[in-house]
């Protein structure tokens, strides 16, 4: 019975998505179901997380077919942490969507699709089968295509064409990699693959397969030469959609990269070098890209790319400390990036613009809101007690340990440029005198909407800011978690044993 | 047979990527379809082609007596075909909408998202 515990977060999202489809035309009911469902989901995720934390990795074989023949679901600490973060971000965005997305858009099945997206994410984190991972990825991208196009504005459709093409290409490359891997080993179970790939004699072919995985996941996680679809599309949909995309979609790519390169393709110096070089360029180009943008959401899009570099650099250095830093950064980044896009939505609601030049005077007019926005913005920079600071300690320590001074330089450079970008944003949007913005007659400004909507917009931002504050001030807890995850990842035998040596008990 | 299939897969991948690099939206869709089919054939080929040996255990025995065709790749292809079918139909609708709204089928002119705003 306890084995099925790890499927509950997955099944709950599926149930929610299906239930919501029965209320297709009743937006009010959808809002309530989505919010309540997300709260329950958060509760369930916390429960499962506590169980895994106390009892260690759990697995379940679908249909009772023993691994490596059936499809395995496995919840180690890494997977369940990601599921927990998904449900935190999911809850916040679910509430935020009710308040900020206009009902013309909600009418086209926004909430069911949103929960299908969360279902895909949860599945991708929990699965232990590489082809199953592909299927979850497809569920994620199909849902995200619909979410990005709902509304059908010109910019949205243009962004969607680019987003679609690159993501489809990524899927095909991922599928090609799976095909080659299956041809090499005759297996799809990730634990079994880890054993069999290590025994393959044709190392060159293994390396090529690894590169195919790197390209496939690299497009999805927006790594250096493969990120151009991201700034072209993430600022086009409603900010609630950008929030869930920015928070989780690129991170699922990072999750897959970390999983594959700590479990299946381990100990290859060449690959680690490639990862390091890519990460350094990602940090550099993302930071410089953010520097020149004027639209707030584009700035945040480039910062997503920049900060993906921190996680990849941790993976590239491949020591326990470095991976702990990468995991800590992942936790911090999901919370902060989701929050930042919601904040850009709030700014847009208040002023009707996201252009830094046109905005101004926030601090004078909305001091409390400014204080609220201060938390995620400066957490992102990593001003010491806030959350962005702690993972960088691990990453910098690790780069001294491994002697990769280029990584050290890139980490410090990217962190400095992030500071410059956020300081510029703060000066332009918050401190500068209010500018004259032409009033849009039909636009539903913040001061015109109902109180309940305002609460729905503010509450998720407060909620995520509180979680971010906890990550910052309770850094010790998160560090313990990250260290445990990284020790589990470094010792891939644990994962393999958990999958292959389980007894099917009835 | 393997060589022939390998050549076909190579052509499909090359043609697919070439078509995706063209500027026309319709060619983009053709590229997507070719690439999808190339990937499916690749799974089929790499699952080893075994002729005339279906994976069915004869009535009187309990295990396979001789080499048999691996059924797993075919299950994978079936899944992949369904998924790529869904994606392709979405792509066609998306391109149709995009063409209607943007009023061009030239990808180079779809640059509203890169403009300063």
From TrEMBL, chain A:
Protein name: Multicomponent Na+:H+ antiporter subunit D
One Gene Ontology molecular-function label: NADH dehydrogenase (ubiquinone) activity
GO biological process annotation, one example: ATP synthesis coupled electron transport
Tree of life domain: Bacteria
Membrane topology qualifier: Multi-pass membrane protein
Pfam families: Proton_antipo_M
Keywords associated with the record: Cell membrane, Membrane, Transmembrane, Transmembrane helix
Protein transport as UniProt keyword: no
Cellular localization per UniProt: Cell membrane; Membrane
PANTHER family per the UniProt record, alphabetical: NA(+)_H(+) ANTIPORTER SUBUNIT D1 (PTHR42703:SF1), NADH DEHYDROGENASE (PTHR42703)
Stretches that traverse the bilayer: 6-24, 36-53, 73-96, 108-127, 133-152, 164-184, 204-230, 242-267, 273-292, 299-318, 324-348, 369-390, 405-431, 452-473
Segments forming domain NADH:quinone oxidoreductase/Mrp antiporter transmembrane: 129-418
Keyword Membrane: yes
Membership in a protein family: Belongs to the CPA3 antiporters (TC 2.A.63) subunit D family.
GO cellular component: plasma membrane
Subcellular location, principal: membrane
TrEMBL record, chain B:
Transmembrane segments: 6-21, 28-49, 75-95
Subcellular location(s) of the protein: Cell membrane
Ribosomal protein keyword on record: no
Record's bilayer topology term: Multi-pass membrane protein
Principal location listed in the UniProt entry: membrane
Lineage: superkingdom: Bacteria
Keywords: Cell membrane, Membrane, Transmembrane, Transmembrane helix
Name of a matching Pfam family: Oxidored_q2
Transmembrane helix keyword on record: yes
Sequence similarity: Belongs to the CPA3 antiporters (TC 2.A.63) subunit C family.
PANTHER family: ANTIPORTER SUBUNIT MNHC2-RELATED
Name listed for the protein in its UniProt record: Na+/H+ antiporter subunit C
Taxonomic source organism: Salegentibacter maritimus
């Amino acid at each position: 019975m306890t084995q099925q515990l790890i499927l509950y977060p997955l099944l709950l999202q599926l149930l929610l998505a299906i239930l919501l489809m029965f209320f297709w035309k009743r937006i009010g009911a959808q809002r309530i179901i989505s919010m309540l469902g997300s709260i329950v989901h958060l509760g369930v995720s916390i429960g499962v997380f506590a169980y895994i934390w106390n009892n260690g990795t759990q697995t379940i074989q679908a249909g009772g077919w023993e691994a490596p023949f059936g499809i395995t679901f496995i919840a180690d600490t890494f997977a369940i942490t990601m599921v927990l973060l998904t449900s935190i971000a999911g809850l916040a965005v679910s509430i935020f969507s009710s308040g900020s997305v206009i009902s013309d858009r909600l009418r086209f099945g926004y909430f069911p699709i949103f929960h299908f997206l969360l279902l895909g994410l949860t599945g991708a984190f929990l699965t232990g089968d590489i082809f199953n991972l592909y299927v979850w990825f497809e569920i994620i991208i199909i849902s995200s295509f619909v979410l990005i196009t709902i509304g059908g504005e010109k910019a949205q459709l243009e962004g969607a064409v680019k987003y679609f093409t690159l993501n489809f290409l990524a899927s095909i490359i991922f599928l090609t990699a799976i095909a080659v891997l299956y041809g090499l080993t005759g297996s799809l179970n990730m634990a079994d693959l880890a054993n069999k790939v290590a025994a393959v004699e044709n190392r060159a072919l293994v390396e090529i397969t690894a590169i195919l995985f790197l390209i496939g996941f690299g497009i999805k996680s927006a790594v250096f030469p493969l990120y151009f679809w991201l700034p072209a599309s993430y600022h086009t949909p409603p900010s609630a959609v950008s929030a869930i995309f920015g928070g989780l979609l690129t991170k699922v790519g990072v999750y897959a990269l970390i999983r594959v390169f700590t479990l299946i393709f381990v100990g290859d110096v060449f690959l680690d070098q490639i990862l390091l070089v890519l990460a350094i360029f990602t940090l550099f180009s993302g930071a410089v890209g953010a520097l020149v943008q004027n639209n707030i959401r584009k700035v945040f899009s480039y910062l997503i790319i920049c900060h993906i570099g921190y996680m990849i650099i941790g993976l590239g250095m491949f020591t326990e400390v470095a991976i702990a830093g990468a995991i800590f950064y992942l936790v911090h980044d999901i919370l902060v990036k989701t929050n930042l896009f919601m904040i850009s939505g709030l700014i847009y609601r208040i002023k009707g613009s996201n252009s830094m030049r046109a905005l101004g005077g926030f601090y004078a007019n909305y001091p409390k809101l400014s204080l609220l926005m201060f938390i995620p913005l400066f957490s992102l920079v990593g001003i010491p007690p806030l959350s962005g600071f702690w993972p960088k300690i691990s990453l910098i320590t690790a780069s001294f340990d491994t002697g990769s001074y280029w990584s050290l330089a890139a980490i410090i450079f990217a962190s400095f440029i992030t500071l410059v970008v956020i300081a510029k944003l703060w000066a332009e949007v918050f401190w500068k005198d209010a500018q004259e913005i032409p009033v849009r007659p039909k636009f539903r400004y913040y001061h015109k909407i109902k109180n309940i909507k305002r609460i729905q917009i503010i509450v998720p931002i407060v909620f995520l800011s509180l979680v971010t504050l906890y990550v910052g001030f309770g850094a010790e807890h998160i560090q313990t978690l990250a260290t445990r995850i990284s020790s589990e990842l470094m010792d891939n035998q644990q994962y393999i044993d958990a999958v292959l040596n389980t007894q099917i008990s009835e | 047979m393997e060589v022939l299939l390998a050549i076909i897969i190579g052509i499909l991948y090359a043609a697919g990527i070439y078509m995706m690099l063209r500027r026309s939206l319709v060619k983009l869709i053709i590229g997507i379809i070719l690439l999808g089919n190339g990937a499916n054939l690749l799974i089929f080929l790499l699952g080893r082609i075994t002729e005339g040996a279906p994976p069915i255990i004869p009535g009187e025995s309990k295990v396979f007596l001789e080499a048999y065709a691996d059924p797993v790749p075919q299950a994978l292809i079936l899944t992949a075909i369904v998924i790529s079918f869904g994606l392709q139909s979405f792509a066609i609708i998306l391109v149709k909408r995009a063409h209607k709204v943007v009023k061009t089928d030239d990808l180079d002119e779809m640059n509203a998202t890169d403009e300063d705003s």
